[in-house]
Write a structure and sequence with these properties.
about 210 residues, alpha/beta, 2 domains, Rossmann fold
């Protein structure tokens, strides 16, 4: 797992499909890949939605992610899996409904004979090994500055530990055309299918399309 390699994979896939440029929606790691795409080949970026990610990652948020990946439980039933996620993330996501929590579990877990298990490659945890979370993490401001000409919507969870309000403010200063949405009652990362987010994202992409013509 390497963000630079993953960005190269995206470019290779676009080339194979004959896609010259596109609007990108990047949540968490996906947003980091977008930063690298801007450095490697900015012309592929027609519009950008960054979901709770920016050029500065707060160490507290990354440490939180590592802690629950390290201790990912294996509940026996869907109800137990929902309860587990609520115990871990409930304080950051008070806005989620019962339906939202169940959908979350089905999205990030899979049912097996042994119960509901996390549906991710365990090697992902290895990418966080050796990081000193007591020190600020390296930033991506030069890569973000390269996105200045691309229509950009930044979405931040009001309870996010990964993307700070101060970082979003600085992003807006460097990218004066950037639009922002703060999703109250959600942390990292806001569920893009909830509330008014689908309509707001669609409206942003429609505006970006019109302005590009």
């Amino acid at each position: 797992y390497n963000v630079g390699v993953e960005a190269g994979d995206v470019l290779a896939g676009m080339s194979a499909l004959g896609v010259e440029h596109a609007a990108f929606v990047g949540t968490s790691r996906g947003g980091l890949i977008i930063h690298v795409l801007g450095a490697l080949k900015p012309t592929v970026l027609k519009a950008i939605v960054l979901n709770d990610i920016g050029p500065v990652i707060e160490a507290e948020g990354l440490a939180h992610i590592r802690s629950y990946l390290d201790r990912a439980p294996k509940p026996k039933t869907l109800a137990e899996a929902v309860d587990t996620q609520r115990r871990v993330h409930g304080a950051d996501f008070p806005a989620l409904t019962d339906v939202d929590w169940a959908r979350m579990v089905r999205a990030i877990c899979r049912e097996t004979a042994a119960g509901w298990v996390p549906d991710f490659d365990p090697a992902l945890v290895d990418t966080l090994a050796g990081i000193d979370f007591s020190k600020p993490l390296p930033g991506l401001w030069p890569q973000f500055d390269a996105l200045a000409a691309v229509p950009l919507l930044a979405i931040r969870g009001g309870n996010s530990k990964l993307l700070s309000a101060a970082s979003v403010e600085e992003m807006g200063r460097r990218h004066p055309g950037m639009e922002t949405i703060t999703v109250e009652g959600q942390g990292h990362a806001p569920f893009l299918e909830t509330g008014t987010l689908p309509r707001e994202i669609a409206d942003f992409l429609d505006r970006a399309e019109r302005e590009s013509k």
